[in-house]
Structures are given as C-alpha cells and as structure tokens.
Amino acid sequence: MKTIEFDLFAYSIQAIRRACHEVSDSVSLEINVIDERRAVVSVADGMIPDRFRGAVLDHQIRLDTEAQFRTVRELILAQAFAPCDNLAEIVERCQ
After folding, report:
1. Which run of H or of E encompasses 54?
2. Parallel, antiparallel, or unpaired for β 29-33 and 38-43?
3. Helix 70-80 × helix 49-68 angle, to 10°
C-alpha cells in the first residue's frame, strides 16, 4: 500500500472522505488522522496518488465554495419557493 499525507489546515477531513468515497468502488483505502494537523490515506497499489490528490482538491474547493456562498444560495432558494400572491397573473403572462 502507498500512503498519501494531507495537511488538515489545507484540506478538511470531509474533503478527504468524499474523495475516498469517489474512488472506493475501484480501490481499497484507509484514512488515519495522525494529529490535529495531519491525516494519512493508505491506498492500494494501482491508485495513482496524483489523481487522488486532485480528487481531494476538487472536493475541498466544492466545500469552500458551498461555505462561501451558503447565504446567497439560501436567499435564492427562499425566493424561489416563496408564496406568490399574483401567481395567476404570472402564469397568464407566460402563456
């Protein structure tokens, strides 16, 4: 098995878990948190470490983006599902 070390100040354990789940159908993995700053993922031979690091980075970017724009997303959803007093008028204009 190969080991890939991650700095937990740069990558969250959640991003590492999501990446593990993404590739778990094709390879065996094990996550070990060494201390508050480091986690090590053991991967079976055959897994390309650069590919896995890229998957972790992709998931970290998604998590960061979700956190950064959470309020905007919630406002858009609230507006999208808000009751509409003039629904009949809107439907009529769209026909």
Report:
1. helix 49-68
2. antiparallel
3. 60
Query: Model's pTM, two decimal places?
Result: 0.76
Q: What is the DSSP letter of 91?
A: H
CATH number at residue 13: 3.30.1360
The torsion angles phi and psi of 58, rounded to 5 degrees, stand at -55, -45
Round to whole Å and give the CA distance between 16 and 28.
Answer: 14
How far is CA 65 from each of CA 10, 69, 72, rounded to the nearest angstrom? 14, 6, 11
Digit-coded pLDDT (tens) for 81-90: 777 776 677 7
What are 51's two structure tokens? 């590919």
Q: Which domain holds residue 48?
A: 2-94
Counting the structural domains of the chain, the total is 1
